[in-house]
Specification:
Number of helices: 8
Number of strands: 0
Shape: flat
Distance between the termini: 60 Å
Radius of gyration: 21 Å
Order of helices and strands: HHHHHHHH
Helix content: over 70%
Length: 224
């Protein structure tokens, strides 16, 4: 019985790998858009006028509070009530990008705040403008500090792409569900899908750990 679980994996694998490609595509687009929007939200909360800070805070807090499944459902099934109709890919991308931006904003905001104030004073002494100081001094250091957390967030968003099948996007989980419906071998198919997710997530997690170790070593060197 146990041996038969993987007996048809060779037949299922091409379909699931096609879904994996779509999952990676969705994750890549959502993460890139989310990081850009997250940086904009972080800057708005740090240096924007009061109305902009309040708006950015509302966007961030709602994005962090709403479950990912709810966000996708709102984007795909809710927005048509406002005459806004999105394809399954666009709705999934928008939903996951919002979630990415919300969490990335807080990661980046904390990293920017962690840059020593003395470095800003030194930049001011060199007659650098605030924009130049941020671009050449603050942001590179904040990005270095936040990189492990942002990589970890990217892994979570990749796992979150499995929810996109609920709005009709044909990613890995969707293809696994379709194969299961055709064969009724759900245990076998879902186990293979889980192993494919594992094959992506475990190496990515190793990269995150290595980045954290290198950051820790670099900080320790600077403190000596």
């Amino acid at each position: 019985m146990i041996a038969s679980i993987g007996s048809n994996w060779g037949d299922y694998l091409p379909t699931l790998l096609d879904g994996l490609v779509q999952s990676l595509k969705l994750c890549a687009v959502a993460v890139v858009l989310g990081l850009l929007c997250g940086l904009a939200l972080a800057l708005a909360r740090i240096a924007g006028p009061a109305p902009l800070r309040w708006f950015a805070a509302a966007v961030v807090e709602l994005g962090r509070a709403f479950p990912a499944l709810l966000v996708l459902q709102l984007a795909y099934y809710g927005l048509p009530s406002l005459d806004i109709i999105l394809s399954s890919f666009v709705a999934s991308t928008a939903g996951l990008a919002w979630i990415t931006a919300s969490f990335a904003s807080e990661i980046l905001r904390g990293s920017i705040a962690a840059v020593p104030f003395g470095q800003l004073e030194a930049a001011s002494a060199l007659a650098l403008s605030r924009r130049a100081s941020f671009r050449t001094i603050v942001f590179p250091q904040a990005l270095r500090v936040s990189l492990p957390a942002l990589l970890g967030l990217g892994i979570q968003i990749f796992q979150g792409t499995a929810l996109a099948f609920t709005v009709g996007y044909t990613e890995l989980m969707s293809n696994a569900y379709d194969v299961g419906n055709e064969t009724f071998r759900y245990l076998s198919v879902f186990l293979l899908a889980g192993l494919i997710y594992t094959a992506v997530v475990v190496p990515a997690s190793f990269i995150v750990r290595q980045a954290e170790l290198r950051l820790g070593q670099h900080v320790a060197t600077e403190l000596r």
